[in-house]
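The records we work with from here on pair a chain with its fold. Here is one such record, which you should read through line by line:
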Amino acid sequence: MKDLLLRNVHVVDPGGPHHDTTVDILVERGRIAKVGARIAKGEAREVKVEGLHASPGWVDLQAHFRDPGEEYKEGLRNGLDAAAAGGFTAVATLPSTTPPVDARAGVEYQLRAAEGHPVRILPLGALTKGLKGQQLADLYDMQRSGAVAFTDDQHPVRNTRLMLLALQYALNFEGTVMAFPADPDLSAMGQMHEGPMSARLGMKGMPAIAETIQLERDLALLEYTGSRLHVGQVSTAGAVDLIRQAKARKLRVTAAVSAHHLLLDDGCLRGFETNYKVMPPLRDAEHIEALREGVKDGTIDAVISDHRPEDVEHKVLEFPQAAFGIIGLETSFAVANTALKGRMSLRRIVERFCHGPRAVLGLEVPHIAEGAQAELTLFDPACDWHLHEGDLVSRSHNTPFIGYPLVGRPLGIIANGKAVLRLATASDAQPA
């Protein structure tokens, strides 16, 4: 990596020595050599962009790279490229691949495949063997190999005793269980949020109570065991209230919301556009308001991409036959910032992309300080822009945000001794 001198950077780094200051940052051989005013350029490449901000690297807690098994939809290295384009320096990858990541070999495969990339991969191991909900996977062995938490993705664990055993077993090595709160029977065959809009469109809905019933069970098991639980995706007002109450009781629970659930509502489905078909479904305005408030007050610890690439054969179909999911790594900050700007500070928004996700996984925050290894996200929080299909790095293009007006844009990352910059000026547009 060439040495870089970032000019007039506004630092957003709560807890760091340079938070809320505008400085120059000199990065030499992958380390922050100097932070201050009017740093001499020397041999470093100078980067000067109006509105440039920097924070410690962002972490995404939930992305699917379809590797192994469906690489034609994404692929692991391509997924990491998309993460870099979205401003992420680390990304947790879901285990619901083919075959699932339910043993040491799957974890080690992902770590090997990601070697040398600027973005660090954080493998999530399956909670049960084959994601079948019948027998626990070898959680401890996977953790020793590098798995950061355990989840069956969007396959809720029906067996209450098995969920209890998972929480008890993970407690022995301070592992984190990630739950998807959805009662599979109440949600069965659902296509969208159950409410006036689903009735109007004549589609079977998924009621909000399906989320809260499953979450109530998991929180009761958490309280009984004293273990650690992360609620992978929250989409309802009732779930936000339950998590808020659980935190007040000092339970070790964290939660995340996908960026698109903060901005889009179920009215988007009027035209039966399948790019709006996601799981959990887009909810109505009342739930969205509760989600935004939960992010603001810290009940929800992290905003995630829930990146799920799908090719046209699985997405461009009649609505009931289309797959759930959208890609989100490249747009999640912009979408969340668009939804939250004006109701909470930039500091708090950045915390939900950096500090909150790291706290969930027990990772240290790489503060911006002289002598530290550089792990930075560069962004412009005030940039007004529209996503064009040609901008996408992801192999799949299943997103409703093409042409959508967004505020706030990632400009690049510096991590793992490398820089990937997507800056506004042509001279700075190439990877360093």
